[in-house]
Amino acid sequence: MSGASGTPYAASVLRALLAAGESVDLVVSRASRLTLLDETGISFRDAHWREDLGEWLARGADGKPASFDVDLDAVRYWSAGDLAAGPSSGSYATKGMLVVPASTACVAGVALGLSKDLLQRAASVTLKERRPLVVAVRETPLNGQTLRHLVTLDDAGASVVPASPGFYAGATHIQDLVDFVAGRVLDAAGVEHGLYRRWRGALGGGSAD
Ligand SMILES: Cc1cc2nc3c(=O)[nH]c(=O)nc-3n(C[C@H](O)[C@H](O)[C@H](O)COP(=O)(O)O)c2cc1C
């Protein structure tokens, strides 16, 4: 997670990954703690990550309880400042990496190979190892610099999945819009989920299910 607005997207992706039986290496950038605090009121602490994560994932984007009964044993948490952490090496086995949400600063850092923290280093490692990297960028409007950085990431093999929800899947709540974006992120990573209703084509009545 980097410090763009959109922590509900990250919560939805995390819940779905755990529900799909995936194990997760979690990195929360320093700036992401600010957005998490701003958007949820949760002050995320390295030393109490399990407790803070549990509290966060149990809440939906509408502030109501989310359906979440997956335990957190499948999560390995790494401090963003820990450049000696597992994911900073290509020899650490992962299936890929999802940056959700992705700030323009993170996009720039990964495009330029800065590796200024564990998040950026792990993303660069993911690219060099030719593993799937999905970048859910959240900013509007986008300037030319960011657009060029996104093209660089696309050229390097990343999937750029803007956090821009579609409205054709029958959304009636904020959580539906959040889950749509989270679902498209998981689609890009090849992870099965039931987060949104898929478009069935105009012959199917033009509806999604
Ligand atoms: C409340 C809040 C919301 C923010 N929203 C965005 C955003 O939507 N997109 C973005 O690119 N940056 C946003 N930022 C700025 C980033 O947090 C900032 O560029 C930071 O340096 C990103 O660092 P990171 O990529 O290491 O997480 C926001 C900052 C705050 C405090």
How many beta-strand runs?
5
Q: What structural class is derived from the secondary structure elements?
A: alpha/beta
Bound small-molecule species: flavin mononucleotide
Strand content: 5-15%
Calculate the mean pLDDT score and round it: 95
* Overall radius of gyration: 17 Å
Do you know the CATH architecture? 3-Layer(aba) Sandwich
From the spread of the alpha carbons, the general shape counts as: globular
The helix content is: 25-40%
User: Could you name the CATH topology?
Assistant: Rossmann fold
Specify the CATH homologous superfamily: Flavin prenyltransferase-like
What order do the helices and strands follow? Answer: HEHHEEHHEHEH
At the first level of CATH, the class is Alpha Beta
Largest sheet: 3 strands, parallel
| Count of distinct structural domains | 1
Distance between the termini: 30 Å
Number of helices: 7
Q: Order of strands in the sheet with the most strands?
A: 3-4-5
The unreliable regions are none
Question: How would you describe this structure to a colleague?
Answer:
By secondary structure, this protein is α/β, with parallel strands linked by helices. The chain has seven helices and five strands. The strands form two sheets. It has a three-stranded parallel sheet, with helices on both faces. Strands 1-2 form a two-stranded parallel sheet. Strand 4, helix 6 and strand 5 form a beta-alpha-beta unit. The longest helix has 16 residues. The site of flavin mononucleotide has 16 residues, from helix 2 and helix 4. The site of flavin mononucleotide (FMN) has 16 residues, from helix 2 and helix 4.
